[in-house]
Amino acid sequence: MNETDIKDIIVRKMRPGDLKEVLAIEKVSFPTPWSENMFLEELYSPICNDFVATSDGEIVGYISFLTVLDEIHLRNIAVREDRKRRKIASKLLGEMFKISSEKGTNWCTLEVRKSNYAAITMYKKFGFVISGIRPRYYSETREDALIMQATLE
Ligand SMILES: CC(C)(COP(=O)(O)OP(=O)(O)OC[C@H]1O[C@@H](n2cnc3c(N)ncnc32)[C@H](O)[C@@H]1OP(=O)(O)O)[C@@H](O)C(=O)NCCC(=O)NCCS
């Protein structure tokens, strides 16, 4: 697969039946992965938005974000290890920005581990700037979180 194959990636709403594959990606992506119940609560919440990226029917990434009043809070995004650096996260962020535009939200905020160079680089590419620090936000490693924000058009 090369970059041009991104057109074959389909983004659709996450369903409970997707969780086995989603959890497999989640477990290798984060030190404190979300549980199945956390995803299920998301799926049944009216303010949560959860999408998967699929390739030939396989789940290769996902995104979860909240929409509250005029704000989006990006809570989770991950891509399957063997499909990284192929613009899948970029496509998922594109879906979030599309929904943001439909809902008329004005800005997006997120927290990211200070050491997560790949994610910070990606967010900066999409117009996010660092707006603050939450010291020792991640309790298991006592790592700081950077707060990043983007103004949405
Ligand atoms: C961060 C993550 C979601 C990126 O997914 P991806 O599909 O590989 O990202 P994309 O291919 O869309 O990359 C978009 C841009 O992000 C940046 N980027 C992504 N991975 C990078 C890396 N390893 N190093 C440096 N920059 C990187 C680049 O600017 C890239 O654009 P480019 O390829 O034109 O240079 C993925 O690495 C991942 O799942 N990480 C583990 C989970 C995680 O940390 N999530 C974020 C929580 S805040």
Helix content: 25-40%
Task: Determine and state the CATH class.
Answer: Alpha Beta
Strand content: 35-45%
What would the average pLDDT be, to the nearest integer? Answer: 95
* CATH superfamily placement: Gcn5-related N-acetyltransferase (GNAT)
Q: Which CATH architecture would you pick?
A: 3-Layer(aba) Sandwich
| N-to-C span | 32 Å
Count of separate structural domains: 1
Helix-strand string:
EHHEEEHEHEE
The total of helices stands at: 4
Helix-strand makeup class: alpha+beta
* Low-confidence runs: none
According to CATH, the fold-level topology is Aminopeptidase
Bound molecule kinds, no repeats: coenzyme A
Report strand order across the widest sheet: 1-2-3-4-5-7-6
Rg, please?
A: 15 Å
General form:
globular
By DSSP, the count of extended strands is 7
Sheet of most strands: 7 strands, mixed
Topology:
Elements: E1 10-13, H1 19-29, H2 36-43, E2 48-55, E3 58-68, E4 71-79, H3 88-103, E5 107-113, H4 117-125, E6 129-138, E7 143-151
Parallel strand pairs: 4-5
Antiparallel strand pairs: 1-2, 2-3, 3-4, 5-7, 6-7
